[in-house]
User: Fold this.
Amino acid sequence: SSAQAVLKDPTVTFAALETARGGLLRFGLGYDFANVGVVLNVAADHLGLRDIDTLDDLAKVKSLIIERVFPDGFAVLNAEDSYAAWMAKRTKAKVALFSLDPANELFKGHVEHGGLGAVMDRHDTLCLYRSTLRIPIIHARQIPITFDGKAKFNIANALAAALTCFAAGVDLEEIRGGLT
Assistant:
């Protein structure tokens, strides 16, 4: 109901909606299609709700988010998640990958073949990739939620957020401003 309230407001031109697994199972997506869909991870700490007892079951539930992205949109996935390649096959959208590890094979292959991506480089700078074009965004220490670059899970979240915004056409300076 909160997603519908936001989407029915005629003044809204851009909305970022969290679609948690519990909401998906109880109420569905809350929208028909999106321009960008994001799955941060498939993790065991999300099991045990409404007969979702295996990671395979959870991956099927979460993949609904990227299955309902327009074909000209983007499915943003965590290249470090073991379900990322499987999920990428379940969407008609273009795929964008993020990773904390610049040596991640799935990420590297994706950008080398023209894909959109985001990674933290070896100097702890968050970078976007459009194919092999590297676009430095910001150092991890400059993002307050990373606690001086120490909170890796929040760096991963920042990568996902920056990549999502980039895929949606948000200006680079606005992305930097949002991260800081």
